[in-house]
Amino acid sequence: FPVTIEKQERYISTREMTKLDWLTARKSGIGGSDVGTVLGLNSYKTPYQLWKEKVSNEEPTEIDSLPAKLGNLYEPVISQLYEEKTGYKVRNDNKIRIHKEHSCLLVNLDRVIVANDERGTGILEIKTTNALARKHWDSAIPINYYCQVQHELSVTGYQWAELALLVDNREFEIIPIARDENYIQMQNQALVYNFHL
């Protein structure tokens, strides 16, 4: 897939990609949704299972669960709720972004926040959950979400992100997430090391 370099960004355009092309391109590195698995934080998939998917010569497949499908369908609605609540504009990204130093670190953003203030461009990470799960979060967000967003900030170079959360179609929350440079450096080392094993 052709890599575009523009304004210090490296990316593969997804505008004309088929779903199969997109899944194939994702096999070339560690994406945001892979980070928790690589770090051993995913109870549904082991790092070994993810590694086998990445190195397999088989045509990639993705079996979406119903919650995942609904989450994708809700993305435009949650984006609109975010715009209404904050006054910021958000846009689709249509890119597989590539880290400027580590080409194995990739990201597909849910949305980009167009902020006309001192913070500049930000990331909007969109999630849905239920009230019971939300009640049991130990901190502002689960650790695997935190790792995913820090990965997105690392690859893009952006300084801030917000998580837009729809709970049981009844409550809407916005949770700010600041860039943590020390954490990003440690996480990148772990991700790059594991990718090249």
What does this structure look like?
- With 197 residues, this protein is an alpha+beta fold.
- Helix content is 40%, strand content 23%.
- It has helices at 19-26, 32-38, 47-55, 66-86, 131-135, 143-156, 181-195; strands spanning 4-6, 9-13, 89-91, 95-98, 106-107, 111-114, 122-129, 160-167, 171-178.
- The strands form 2 sheets. A 5-stranded mixed sheet has the order 3-6-7-8-9, with helices on both faces. Strands 1-2-4-5 form a 4-stranded antiparallel sheet, covered by helices on one side.
- A hairpin with a 3-residue loop joins strand 8 (160-167) and strand 9.
- Helix 2 packs across helix 6 (143-156) and helix 6 packs across helix 7 (181-195).
- It is globular.
- It starts with a strand and ends with a helix.
- The mean pLDDT is 90.
